[in-house]
Amino acid sequence: MEEYTGSKYEGDIKNGRMEGKGTYTFPTKTRYEGELLDGMFHGQGTLFFPNGSRYVATWKEGRAIEGKYTFADGLEYEEEDWEYCDGYDRRFYTEICKGLKPAGRSQLTNRIPPREIPASCYDTGDGFTTRTQGSS
C-alpha cells in the first residue's frame, strides 16, 4: 500500500481488507488508530494530527458521526457555549491554565515556549514571511 498511496497500515486484515483494529498512517503523517470494517473507519477511533491535536470519534462507514476535537495544548473544542478567545476573554488558553505573565512579559502566542521568529521575519500564524524591499 505504501508504495502506491504513500500511506501505511498495520493491523488486522480480513478477506484482504483492513478490518478489526489497526493503525492507518496518511502521507501527511496524520494517523488513525481504531476500529475498521471493510477497509473503512468504523467504530471507535482517533485521528492524531502532526501538530499534536487529536479527534476522537465514533465512525460509521468512513464518516465521523460523533466526535471531540482536542487542540495540541489540551483545549477541547465545544460546539456550544464556546468560551475560549471570545469577545469577553481574549486570553490564550495557556494563560487561562497557567495564569497571566507579569507586565512586559506577556505572551504573544499560545505556545509555551513561543517559537523563535527569525530576524527580519514576521509570524503569520502558519509560518513566517519576510519584509520585502520597498515595503514600509
What's this entry about, in short?
The protein has 136 residues and is mainly β.
Any chance you could write out the topology, listing elements then pairs?
Blueprint: H1 2-5, E1 8-14, E2 17-25, E3 31-37, E4 40-48, E5 54-60, E6 63-70, H2 93-98, E7 121-123, E8 128-130
Antiparallel strand pairs: 1-2, 2-3, 3-4, 4-5, 5-6, 7-8
Verbal overview:
- The protein is mainly beta.
- The protein folds into two domains: 2-70, Single Sheet (Histone H3 K4-specific methyltransferase SET7/9 N-terminal domain); 83-136, no CATH class.
- The chain has two helices and eight strands.
- The protein has helices at 2-5, 93-98, and strands at 8-14, 17-25, 31-37, 40-48, 54-60, 63-70, 121-123, 128-130.
- A six-stranded antiparallel β-sheet has the order 1-2-3-4-5-6, with no helix packed on it. It has a two-stranded antiparallel ribbon with strand order 7-8.
- A hairpin with a 2-residue loop joins strand 1 and strand 2.
- It is extended, with a radius of gyration of 20 Å.
- The model has no long low-confidence stretch (mean pLDDT 81).
Name of the CATH class of the largest domain: Mainly Beta
How widely separated are the two ends? Answer: 51 Å
**Segments where pLDDT lies below 50 for 5+ residues?**
none
Structural category is mainly beta
Strand order of the largest sheet: 1-2-3-4-5-6
Number of helices: 2
| CATH structural architecture of the largest domain | Single Sheet
How many independent structural domains?
2
Overall, the morphology is extended
User: What is the ordering of alpha helices and beta strands?
Assistant: HEEEEEEHEE
